[in-house]
Amino acid sequence: MTRPRVTIVDVARHAGVSTTAVSKVVRNAPGTSAQMRSRVLAAVEHLGYRPSAAARALRGRTDTIGVVLPDLRNPFFADILDGVTEHLASSDHQLFMASSHDDEASEGRVTDALIDRSMDGVILVAPISSRRRLEHVAHTVPTVVVGRHGPAAGYDIVADDDFAGAGLVVAHLAELGHRRIAHIEHHETDPVRLAEMPNARRADGYRHAMRAHGLGADIDVVSTTYNRDGGYRGARRLLDRAERPTAIFAGADIVAMGVLDALTEAGLSVPGDISVAGYDNITFAAFAPVALTTVDQTGHRIGRTAARLLLERIADRSRPTSQVTFFPALVARRTTAPPSLSSR
Amino acid sequence: MTRPRVTIVDVARHAGVSTTAVSKVVRNAPGTSAQMRSRVLAAVEHLGYRPSAAARALRGRTDTIGVVLPDLRNPFFADILDGVTEHLASSDHQLFMASSHDDEASEGRVTDALIDRSMDGVILVAPISSRRRLEHVAHTVPTVVVGRHGPAAGYDIVADDDFAGAGLVVAHLAELGHRRIAHIEHHETDPVRLAEMPNARRADGYRHAMRAHGLGADIDVVSTTYNRDGGYRGARRLLDRAERPTAIFAGADIVAMGVLDALTEAGLSVPGDISVAGYDNITFAAFAPVALTTVDQTGHRIGRTAARLLLERIADRSRPTSQVTFFPALVARRTTAPPSLSSR
DNA sequence: ATGAAAGCGCTAACAA
DNA sequence: TTGTTAGCGCTTTCAT
User: Fold this and answer.
1) pLDDT tens-place string over residues A235-266
2) Which chain A residues are closer than 8 Å to B64 by Cβ?
3) Is there a contact between A58 and B81 if contact means CB atoms under 8 Å apart?
4) Which of A98, A139, A140 sits opposite B97 (nearest CB)?
5) Residue A94, CB half-sphere, CA atoms under 13 Å: how many?
6) Residue A150 belongs to domain with CATH number
7) What is the Cα–Cα distance from A47 to A30, expressed in whole angstroms?
């Protein structure tokens, strides 16, 4: 069924040279005559030889980098990956992805799996593991953490200023005349994650901005999860309030989707009855029938930067770590408008 | 910066046993006393030993399977992956994904990369490579092809009956009273792909069903691409028709998204002015403000089945190939309705 | 410029 | 039950 692998030995024999020679030619290493090159390449072609990455891995690099994503359904991660892929295209690294399914234990397993398979480097997107664990990973393999803040210890960080981004949304809604602006956040209790995770920073930014706009008394946060169902549940709870909010700021666009599910189901119009804003500016937010007001954190640029930092670290593992923060921008679309007179 | 790897030799020395013993214990292989087990496991724990997958790969299996996806933005693939992941959870295989970015050359590179890294098996989702190429891959590594039809040569196939699915949509629209039902397909010229790719089968099913319903004269196919932009461009062209269609059947839900973008932009209401149907039943189709009529091809079940077949083939590479086809179901939601009287 | 040989970490015969 | 040893395919000194 399956034919035996063509190895470097087969090529060497076929070309009548040493395996060393083949190795050099294949790797474009110096010290080969033009004549030898052509003979070896002919044999490679003839036999259909492909170097075994496994054998190479045993001697060092694998030319493979791994990305751990929390969730394949949130299109924001596709934006990040586009950026990573773009930057990696200039190198000869292969990119493999694995999902942690939003679960800490699974995230650990997947990261270990990547390390066991000797990835040259890993990019962890919005990881939820403990900082100690992240430091351990970074100690073992060049690591870049995306979308999580906090003191970098051994790894580079690329993130968006979530605190400021949340402020942009609140300012936008307050200017439109909203006072009862509610926020749906991803539930979080761990103290480190409360300081480092984007969801927590957005919630903090929301609270801070509400106070700054004199709306401290109207702060209203519902804790669910950063996915569509979390948005649905959060909105349901907000709709049950004695006094409904006039605007809902969902911590992520995917959460806003769930909010819109719930509002549609309840027969409410957006933004007529209630305004909705998200965060991430996933391509879905631009979907015309929705036209979601959101915050653009340029996932593409984040991904590119992460890939660049990772390659730099792979090239020089002792280079000092850096922390890049991008400032986000508000993208006002059609789900936000001044509150209706009756509800004001 | 990075500490040297803990190897099986370190563990053996620490536990005062042979490397063979460690290897056996770690793999739960037979032939180890309880006493030896505990000593070895203690050493493993103490030293934080993790077997090198690269070294294992050189001896055989890697416990890794690779999935090649055309595109990370089409949420239908996430449904398939959920199914794959679910089935794989019962085995100790790790799942890595790679994107081909809808490009044949890239698909080839990515598949080679997976083979080079000695994956135990690969799942190719809606691959566009030539059949010869697929046979080559299957000849090299256990392979399951998902979402592409055709004579199986060396690989298993799991797909949905796209021809029948398209018929369900046409029947639904015809029953509602539509006659001018247009179809947006993914442009295809390669003869083999015309016979095997889901997009081509759906287009064939559309034409066949139109004739079966006596609407042969109204057949109207626009060729673009299976992504959101393709849907947008296709709809624009249909709106420019002297006599507009009353219903648009997009070959995929993601295409329908683009159609809805265009219709919204043109100020047309759905289904008031025009009905829209998709295919795939991605979770987005259930998004309440849209409520897209579509065809459910149970990506989850397809993924589960693909994973099962792959594990079976890994266990026995000579077992005969099988071809599983699932029958799809229409999911009628709110984007389809009888045509308006004026346009009839 | 070219090649011989050691060895990366692990598993699988085979011996004891 | 336990250990010795020969590779898996490649890269890398080190000779030539």
Assistant:
1) 999 999 999 999 999 999 999 999 999 999 99
2) 113, 117
3) no
4) A98
5) 27
6) 3.40.50.2300
7) 23
